[in-house]
Design a protein that fits this description.
Blueprint lengths: L15 H8 L5 H12 L3 H4 L2 H8 L3 H10 L5 H14 L1 H8 L10 H22 L2 H13 L2 E5 L3 H15 L4 E4 L2 H9 L5 E6 L6 H12 L3 E6 L5 H5 L2 E4 L12 H21 L1 H15 L7 H4 L11 E3 L6 E3 L10
Parallel strand pairs: 1-2, 1-3, 3-4, 4-5
Antiparallel strand pairs: 6-7
Helix pairs in contact: 2-5, 4-5, 6-7, 8-14, 9-14, 10-14, 11-12, 14-15
């Protein structure tokens, strides 16, 4: 088939997947690898560069280009445009791509719920089964004793980064999360051998996250990556890589199963760090609990009861462990 440079995304020509099926007999062995991969993962061209697709299929960028031309496209860019057009034009394909193959538009709510539970449970179990607890313990030891801990995450992973930072800060770990490249690079450049930097990326291919982690590594920090893709650039560039496992693909583009397995790993990491610094962690948690207690509404059962007299006030342990002090429901302004 000759090159058809005039093919556009908006015409009525056959879909890209149909073109692939028809051209299979004409393909070389290397092109067949690309074809089979794309038939199984039709959205890939929207997410991968030509080099990444070549690496994923064990071919070369030149082979990918010849593959596109065999299908009637001038190159990889118009090929990607055609794929995007097919996905947007075909509602059935859009459902499969954006929602997932595990769900169907006419499923009953109970079926949807059962599928969700099953998929999330399998993701959590697969992640737990494959976790290297020795690596988790090593990461926790490094974080517990470091001067500063940087956490990098973009988009949905930024939420995970903020959650981990908030929890570790409460147990006395000097840390900060970064979701903006320039600020993250600035912080990464200030790291040293007494610091730890963690990148959170489900795909492991988020460029900004990779750049921040690489900068921290060049500055001397010990680097860790949490990703669902052990062969990704983020994993390959880190001193220590922790792999999660999201079963199936649904709720695109922000797969909540991926978030849940990330939370499992982060929760475990938090607890292991707390174990490493048990005394400091418990003291810090006690101090923060006392600080926020007056700002929590009392349970309904106590709302209609008067406050206890001063003689019945309870005592609370101070963070320093040096003495006990009274906790009152009233506050006294500090003297200037």
């Amino acid at each position: 088939m000759g090159t058809q440079g005039a093919v556009t995304a908006g015409d009525s020509s056959p879909s890209v997947m149909s073109r692939i099926h028809r051209a299979l007999p004409e393909m070389s062995a290397a092109m067949v690898k690309i074809a089979n991969f794309l038939l199984e993962h039709p959205r890939t061209p929207l997410e991968y560069s030509i080099v990444e697709l070549a690496e994923e299929t064990g071919t070369s960028a030149a082979t990918v280009t010849r593959f596109c031309r065999l299908l009637g496209f001038a190159g990889y860019v118009p090929f990607r445009v055609a794929v995007a057009s097919d996905i947007g034009r075909d509602s059935a394909s859009s459902w499969q791509t954006d929602i997932g193959q595990e769900f169907h538009p006419d499923d009953e709510p109970r079926v949807v719920l059962d599928t969700l539970i099953g998929t999330h449970t399998r993701s959590l179990q697969q992640t737990a089964d494959q976790l290297d607890l020795g690596l988790m313990a090593e990461a926790a030891r490094r974080i517990a004793s470091c001067r500063h801990f940087d956490i990098y995450g973009i988009g949905g992973s930024a939420v995970m980064a903020a959650e981990l930072q908030g929890r570790l800060y409460r147990i006395g770990i000097s840390c900060h999360h970064w979701s903006e490249l320039h600020n993250g690079l600035t912080s990464a450049a200030l790291q040293d051998a007494d610091c730890v930097a963690l990148a959170i990326s489900n795909t492991g291919r988020t460029e900004a996250t990779i750049q921040m982690l690489e900068q921290a590594g060049r500055s001397g920090a010990f680097t860790v990556a949490i990703t669902n893709n052990p062969s990704s650039p983020a994993a390959a560039g880190a001193d220590l890589s922790i792999t999660t496992s999201a079963f199936g693909r649904f709720l695109q583009p922000d797969d909540l199963a991926a978030k849940h397995v990330q939370l499992l790993v982060l929760d475990l990491l938090y607890l292991l760090v707390a174990q490493e610094n048990y005394t400091r962690a418990t003291s810090s948690l006690a101090a923060t609990a006392v600080a926020v207690a007056p700002h929590r509404r009392a349970p309904r059962s106590t709302l209609n009861h008067p406050s206890p007299p001063a003689s019945a006030r309870s005592t609370a342990w101070t963070p320093r462990g040096t003495r006990q002090h009274e906790v009152s429901t009233t506050t006294t302004p500090r003297k200037a």
